Each structure stands twice: as structure tokens, then as C-alpha cells.
Amino acid sequence: MPDRPGPGFGRTAVAALPDRPAVLDDAAVAALLPERSPRGHKGSFGKLLVIAGSLDYAGAALLVARSAGRAGAGLITLAVPESLQPLFAARVLEATTMALPEDDVEEIDPEPALARILDHEHDALVVGPGLRPGLATTELVRSLLTVAGEADEIDAAPIVLDAEALRSMATMDRWWDGVRRPAVLTPHPGEFARLRAGSDGPIADDGDVSSDDDARLAAARSAAETWGSVVVLKGARTIVAAPDGAAAIAPFENPALATGGTGDVLAGAIGSLLAQGLAPFDAARLGVYLHGLAGDAVRERLGDAGLLASDLPDGLAIARKRLAAIAERKGGGKRLGFAALGPRSEPGREADPAAVPTAAPAPAPTSAPDATRDVR
Fold first, then answer.
1. In the 8-state DSSP scheme, what is residue 44?
2. Residues with Cβ within 8 Å of residue 346, at least 6 apart in sequence
3. pTM for this prediction
4. Which among 42, 93, 296, 325 has most CB atoms closer than 10 A?
5. Given the DSSP bridges, would you call strands 183-185 and 239-241 parallel, antiparallel or unpaired?
6. What value, to the nearest 5°, has the Cα angle with vertex 72 and ends 24 and 28?
7. Where in the chain are the domains?
8. In the chain, which residue ranges form alpha helices assigned H by DSSP?
9. pLDDT of res. 149
10. What distance in Å separates the CA atoms of residue 87 and residue 80, rounded to the nearest whole number?
11. Does 263 have pLDDT greater than 90?
């Protein structure tokens, strides 16, 4: 097949440096796809609860819900302030809505809201996109970080923390202490800097976490270890870091993604994969890669400008289908995504990730896009 700037043409080669993690590629990420049983039903593929949205930022919540569905979640519930529930119920088709009690118009009452959230069956949470800033939001986020009201830390539903949730956490002293649920934090460089500055102790000298890949990697690893959570440091060549020091770097540099709402799509994708049973580090790596592939596909059609966040969710499903086809070729037809049904695998046969065919790397562009642009 001749070389062409197809999906992935926004990727760049990353030079091998000491202690550099492997760059994510099709083969590595395809092995992370959760199985899709041919006898599955909507309850089999994860229940995601999204706590997001306000009158000024209604679109953020809608983008999270749509992208979660396109990434494969079986059931999605959008929890919003009760005064806004009619607005959101009129806009969503596949997701259901849940009213959260208020103590003022659009102001969530944290204690009864928490009780309603914990009483609602869910496998994972996304918290933050489009929430109204304020003390009530901060208290709700603080309560959701812990596992109070749930069986124990092991059984606690994992959580994606984005946008206003991260800004709220930056005001809390040592929010990472105590028994907490598994979490994926998805800050852009500005949010990341606020979280680091708000950490108790000397302010970390992280360097340029927008455009210096080495500084981004070191800072993300340090933060993940300190906070005990998976950190997705967004931007050109997004970094995914785990508390145990494991890390991965995405190959994508795509200035078309530097537009409002694209980060909400990423949060929905990662939350969806958590709900489908992936571990936080796996869900973050797969979500970042699907998001990058979807962005590259839109960039191929529209160029470096003009992408809308609402262009991305459908691309998540297409990207997942592509990765599923790669994994199924190795797995003898094991259903991992939305690819065409192939021969049934032998009972108990598992895919060997190391033997999944590796996609040919895309050629590096002659002039790389501005790496300081980040996913918002």
C-alpha cells in the first residue's frame, strides 16, 4: 500500500531517550480492548454515571455522555442539578438523566446529592466537565474522592476527574490522603500546574509541561506517584502515568484538537472504558489512543482548523473497530469491539499481545505542529 497521510498522519516519531516509555501504537493498544461477548446485553458492557453540566456549560455534559456511548458503554446516566434536568432530558436520546438535589438554583446540595449518587447503580463515574464552580461543587468532589458509603476500597467504582473537579481539588489540602477510590485525572497543563501548586509541601519545579516532553513525562510520573492515581497530562503527545512509575506517551500532535470540548470527549471515552471493566491505566491509555485516532481522522478531512468536539464521538467507534480487527486477527475471532464477526476462537484461548501485528509507523512531518497546543 503506498504511503499516504491517512489516519495517524498527525503522529510524530519520538526519539528514544533514557527512561522513556514506549510510544503507544496500534498493536499495543489493540491488546487492551475489552471483550464484547456475542451474548452480551446493555448491562454487560458497563454502567457509567456522569456528574457534569451547568446552564453555561451544558454542552460539556452532552459531549461526555455521547462519547461514552460511542466508546462502548452499555448504559449511561447523566446526573445534573434538578432545576436543569428538563433541559438535559430534552437533549439526550440514549442516556438517561438523574436529578441531583439543590440548595439554590443550579447549586447542588452536596450531602443529599452524594446519597443519591451512591444509591444509583454504576460501574464507573465521570465527574467535573461543565460543573458550576463553588463551595458546593468542591464539597461534592471531596466526598466522591473517598469510598465512604461503599463496601470497601476494592469494590469502589473508579472515577474520572476532569475540568471543574480538578479545579476544586486544587483548593483542597492533601486531597489524595486517606482511603480513596481508583481515579484517573485528566488535566491540561494549566490544570496540572494548579494541582501541583496546591499540593502540600514545596512547589514542584516541573519545568515546561506544555512543550517539553521530558519535563512532561517526569512531572506526570511524579504527580501520579504522589497522588496515587493515574494521570493523563493532555497536550501534544499526551502522557499517561501510573502510580507505580509505568508510563506511556501517545504519538499524536494535532492542532485541530485545540478547541473547546475535546477534553470532555476524552473524559467520556476513558470513563466508558472504566465502566467496561478496564483497569485505570489501561482505560486511560486506550481512551487517549482512540481519541487521538478520531482526531486524526477529522484532521484528514478538515485540516488543522475547524474541528468541532462533536465531530469526535463517532470517530471513537470507528477507531475501536479498527483496533478490534487487529486484535481479532491474532485472537482467532475473539470479539473485542465492533469489527465484523469472524470465526469463533477456541474456548479459553487468549490473545498474545506481543504477537499482534504492528501498524507501520507514520512518517514524521517536515514541520511538527506547535506542541504547546493542548486538548481543552
1. G
2. 332
3. 0.84
4. 296
5. unpaired
6. 20
7. 26-355
8. 26-30, 58-70, 85-89, 110-119, 135-145, 164-169, 189-198, 213-227, 262-275, 280-302, 312-331
9. 52
10. 10
11. yes
